[in-house]
Amino acid sequence: MKDARVTQMAKNLIGYSVKLKKGENILIEVYDTGEELAAELIKEVYRVGGKPFLTFKKRSLMRELLLGTDDEHMALTGRYEAERMKDMHAYIGIRGPLNSSDWSDVAGDKMGAYQSKWYMQVHSEIRVPRTRWCVMRYPNSSMAQMANMSTEQFEDFYFNVCNLDYSKMSKAMDPLVALMNKTDKVKIKGAGTDLSFSIKGLPAIKCDGEANIPDGEVYSAPVKESVNGYITYNTPAEYQSYTYENIRLEFKDGKIINATANDTERINKVFDTDEGARYVGEFAIGVNPYIIKPMKDTLFDEKIMGSFHFTPGSSYDQCFNGNKSAIHWDLVCIQTPEYGGGEIWFDDVLIRKDGRFVLPELDVLNPEKLK
Amino acid sequence: MKDPRLTSLAKNLLGYSLELKAGEKLLIELFDIGENFAAELVKEAYRIGAKPFVTVKSRKLHRELLLGTDAEHMSQIGKYEAIRMKDMDAYIAVRGIDNALEFSDVPGENMGLYRTNWVKPVHYEIRVPNTKWCLINYPTEAMAQAANMSTEQFEDFYFNVCNLDYSKMSKAMDPLVQLMSKTDRVRITGANTELTFSIKGLPPVKCDGKLNIPDGEVFSAPVKDSVNGYITYNTPSEYEGKLFENVRLEFKDGRIIKATANDTDAVNQIFDTDEGARYVGEFAIGVNPYIVKPMKDILFDEKIMGSFHFTPGSSYENCFNGNKSSVHWDLVFIQTPEYGGGEIWFDDVLIRKDGRFVLPELDVLNPENLK
ipTM of this model? Predict the structure, then answer.
């Protein structure tokens, strides 16, 4: 059956997110589910005069390949894919895993071979730097279950979130970007939270539906050694298949000096991964008006309206604060009244209270204005 | 869930059909359905020490690609696939058909672009001449329905047919091959059928599970101008999405001079495709002991035990009688008692009566000796 929302989403993705032009090549990559969307994307690509290419991945079969692989095999597989990727102008990845834990029994060294020989060669070295790309989830029963929703309810939620007017959101983000670019001191308060740091000299960047769907955050990074105080995250977070809750971090001059959680020993091992894992690489403000509660999928949770995330680990190239690490763990704190409220202050001016922007020029980012 | 019959089928295909060796590269191409089976093939390839590669095709999405394509686009996809194919030592296609008529509304011109610019360079110019290859249908609801069987019944049938001991069948075919090699005149009788032709000088070829699964036929070709008489096929046959029944052909000096069927106009259109379409390119004897009735899938029907097929159109290179055509239409006649019986005579000696071989040296090919 054809869902009109899928057609709409295909139009948004091709026209707005990757801005495909006549004569351009686009690779559409489907993981497990999302065939309906891929079909609509192909139609839309032809409509704008582009050339669609398609690759279909079954994660259960990729698992079988990974179980017996080696570096050479992965490199060869990557090479076949790289030949195609280097001709592409745009890329859309539809990730609808039937079982998100499908690869949980693939040995670490095999996953390493996949990451470093196949994925890096095709995605990190070609797709990310050279194409206009957009990666998204696709709603299926597995994701609905993870979000504690019925499948229909989840689909409604998903299409609201994904078919949002992202061009409107993008414009609405401009005043916040301008404000953050001239901000030095940030103060964050909330239940079990009293944090201060500087974002001086670090650029604010919009995530407005071009590279990820769903989207909706403006991010920057703290000056590496400026973070002091403590934070208690109120959103569960998964890391290597373990769900952490009640994470509390205490900082001194940028460094996590005390970390507790439902499994304190385990979480400290995560932060002991390397030196950079105890410093923060990202500070971001979530504004997606349709995402209002966590569902243990970072791509959604980090965009929750009225939330922010404060991310231990490496910082992005576009907003680099000098911190490097093998981890980048987006931990989310929601400040809406339902989640206990909280305040964000920039240079001693209150800008968001209990999840709502209070400065007049930022009112455009409040949820009712973005729907 | 894992069906142990899939595991033994995977072993048979890689061990017997493809004779896959350690270090060799195998491409597994999956169409639509058969993921479980592809997983077993990957496992078995690794067990042998070979290197498996996987490509998954969704015919629904394939259709979308074909609907808007052009020659350049098809060549470009063909190029990417050719890069991989030319590294391969072996190839296996698993075709799990979801809807056999998925391409029925793709215009003929687009199908032509696909065949000429994608299939031909990848498959006819690289895969067929340079790899060990095998094609197999995977049992699906759609196939069970076409066979008028329940899905479970069809699966049982399928695994009987596919897990047959093909090496035994191959040996059992040798006496028939020898006999056909020295045969000149063939005479075939049956209900509304009285046919004579010569197979002198045309080498018989065994189809013994190396290239197709299911398998089970020995084919040759009639000397092009030698066919005289008439035949009334008793098996329904699909051609380009249309079902034909009661096809009756009358021959003079090799040429079809009269053709009638449930749709006489349509059948004559096929035979008017080109000059070669009115001549016969193949004569073959079916011997698969588990295939006893037609199911409108030619890969099965042409192997029905006690049947033969007599094929208007082009002849194969390994048994070439000089006839070329873009048509190669395997029309099947079943001679078992249930289908009205019939006889095959070689040089005035009766060799098969009512579907059973009567010469002692051919008894090995009767169904009870192949099971």
Answer: 0.80
